[in-house]
Amino acid sequence: MSNLTYSCVAFIDIMGFSNFIKEYDYPSIYQTLKKANEHIKEIIKQQTILPNVKVTFFSDNILISTKCPQAKSTKKWDDCKSSIVGQFMNLINFIQLKSILFGYEIFQMPTLPPLRGAISCGDFIHDNENDVYFGKPLIDTVKMELDSAYYPRIIYDEEILSPETIQRQNQLDNINKSYLCKDDSRIAKLIDIKKNTRRLYFRRDFDGMLHGNYLNSIRMDMNDDSTWTKNNLYMIDCHKRYIEKNLNRFSDYKKYMKIIQKYRWMASYHNWYCDGFNELKQYRIDERVYIIN
After folding, report:
1. What superfamily does domain 5-160 belong to in CATH?
2. What's the mean pLDDT in 129-135?
């Protein structure tokens, strides 16, 4: 019998699935989902830091969790280098990134939808053997996904982050805004601040929501001063091309208004990340493609 255990829980939704099933036959959809599921399971299998990560797929939803009873009492839940909660956030970021690249590289289908969802922590049962999934974090993440994860982002319940981390994020946001109004002599300082915000595993969006900075998972194996490798740049380029293809495909705004808004958000996020590194300037997306005058 499974007991409620303090756990990290991610509830993830494949965006635009209703449109996806209208455009493709069921055998093709089945194969796409099957391969995507196998891909996510392989990512989880290959990581060695988090113990007992469980994953469940149902229709266009993905449920991922890991037990972290020690996080219930610690004050450093979100310390990526030492905590299970931080490592779980990094894992979800990596899954989100690789799902996009997997769709672009393997299927070459620009319509393969990106992911959105939410992460929370709390007492939870993830019992695949008996098909029992129960606990407040599942209720919370489903509600968060429905209410706030409108864009292709996986948002965080801020209660799982330490007050120190929230304060640090707010300080970076405020400093960034203040330096935008300063003279050119402080541009170097602004560049350093931009790099710092890009290296965090989450960011605060325009509406105040915190979401996973999944592009930063490209740098997981890099030191802060490391140069970008060909493989790193290739992943950035694939992300750029994936967005551009979808912006082009859904360019009829009146017909695809809800869909194109999501890819415009991805384009804005992509450029925000690229702006933090000189090596990525050439991978920016032309703003004329996605900004409405």
Report:
1. Nucleotide cyclase, GGDEF domain (3.30.70.1230)
2. 93
